[in-house]
Specification:
Elements (H helix, E strand, L loop, with lengths): L1 H20 L8 E8 L6 H20 L7 E8 L4 H13 L5 E3 L4 H14 L3 E3 L19 E3 L4 H15 L4 E7 L3 H16 L3 E8 L7 H10 L3 E3 L7 H10 L5 E3 L4 H4 L7 H4 L3 E4 L6 H14 L5 H24 L4 H8 L5 E3 L2 E3 L13 E7 L2 E8 L5
Parallel strand pairs: 1-2, 1-3, 3-4, 4-5, 6-7, 6-8, 8-9
Antiparallel strand pairs: 10-13, 11-12, 13-14
């Protein structure tokens, strides 16, 4: 009798613990989602945009009853753009906060660092870390089971920009300027160069700089001497105004090609409008699309700042995650991190602001997701066309 009573007490004590470790199953009244973002550091514009969008999604979802009658709550940690802070946050969210899943950062370096840790922690991360090394294990060539990308990868974006430049702008001679210490910058530069050289173009100069650098005139002077028709400059927000301004001051007339971070930084008050005039770059959404206007209005009304690309893609990332949780709950009447990961693999035609989001189970990255080519005219981004990754 005493042994039976003791066994009953042990089981009774374990039940709430098991419910908590499942993230939201059992008797828990909340679904806890982690959020790892730069909220105060050099890339806070991206992190704040994602966090704000996710919070708006949560409020809308909770107002409609949540998922399975459970309310969602997001637990956020500020990385300050420090990889170690991101790793600590992921561990804390799982070990202490017991989250079901994590909204990851739009920072490639951090996604790459978190990927191998996710193998042992087994809690899915969906984010905007564009470097393909954040979703594909370089050792095996297989996708990391718990890592998912909710926007086009760097390779896809670079090939879109290169294809448009060669096939639509009819450019053949290119130079490239990028940050060799930044995974995002490198992951854009390398596939751009590869596509250009494989499709009849020539890279006449390739110049790099370091994160701490503020003066790129030495590199840009070399590029000017090489006489390219276009310069591809895939850089971070704090580097965009500097590179554009210095290229303009040196009298460089080549067409400037950028990345999806050029709004709003290429048209910011610290950038001479003449320096940014004519720049081409791909973007995840069409700013002129009517369906985005209400979100942009609501976003600014709530947060007092304008929505940027990561606001829309952040909404899509969190929405796709919430949709996976809904499907898992509908099928099992409970949800675990493994169930969420399995459902993320089945994401197909999720209706987001970027378009119909389908996640490939072979790569854990979107397939067939278009981008919009924009050009800065008169100090404002102008939509030119929608463009998909070339098939060859």
């Amino acid at each position: 009798m005493r042994k039976s009573l003791a066994l009953f007490l042990v089981v009774a004590m374990l039940v709430p613990v098991m419910a908590l470790t499942a993230g939201c199953s059992g008797g828990s009244k909340e679904i806890l989602i982690g959020n790892i973002q730069d909220l105060t550091g050099p890339n806070k514009a991206f992190g704040v945009a994602m966090t704000n969008a996710a919070q708006m999604y949560i409020e809308k979802l909770n107002a409609a009853g949540g998922i399975g009658g459970k309310q969602l709550r997001m637990i956020s940690y500020d990385t300050k753009s420090d990889v170690n802070e991101a790793i600590n946050a992921y561990n804390r969210l799982i070990d202490q906060d017991k989250v079901l899943a994590v909204l990851g950062p739009p920072i490639a370096n951090m996604g790459i660092a978190l990927a191998p840790i996710s193998v042992t922690k087994k809690v899915p991360i969906i984010g905007l870390f564009m470097d393909e090394k954040a979703t594909t294990d370089a050792k095996t060539g297989q996708p990391f089971t718990y890592m998912f990308l909710a926007q086009n990868s760097a390779g896809t974006q670079a090939r879109i920009m290169a294809s448009y430049a060669i096939n639509e702008l009819k450019l053949k001679k290119f130079a490239v300027l990028y940050n060799q210490q930044n995974a995002y910058s490198v992951s854009l530069a390398e596939p751009f160069i590869a596509y250009v050289t494989a499709h009849g173009g020539t890279v006449v100069d390739k110049e790099t700089f370091l994160t701490a650098d503020k003066d790129y005139k030495t590199q840009l002077t070399k590029i000017k001497k090489a006489q390219p028709e276009a310069i591809y400059m895939p850089t971070y927000p704090q580097e965009i105004p500097l590179s554009l301004q210095q290229a303009y001051e040196l009298g460089i007339k080549a067409t400037i090609l950028g990345d999806n971070s050029y709004i709003p930084f290429a048209t910011a008050s610290n950038t001479d409008p003449k320096a940014a005039e004519g720049v081409y770059f791909p973007y995840g959404v069409d700013p002129a699309d009517a369906k985005l206007q209400q979100f942009a209005t609501d976003y600014k009304a709530k947060w007092g700042i304008a929505a940027i690309a990561q606001s829309y893609s952040g909404w899509d990332a969190f929405g796709a995650l919430a949709d996976a949780i809904k499907r898992a709950y509908a099928a099992n009447k409970k949800v675990t991190p493994d169930m969420v990961a399995a459902e993320m693999n089945k994401t197909k035609d999720y209706a987001g602001y970027q378009g119909a989001l389908t996640i490939s189970p072979d790569t854990h990255r979107p397939v067939g997701l278009p981008m919009v080519i924009l050009q800065i005219k008169g100090g404002k981004p102008t939509t030119l066309t929608q463009y998909k990754e070339p098939t060859q």
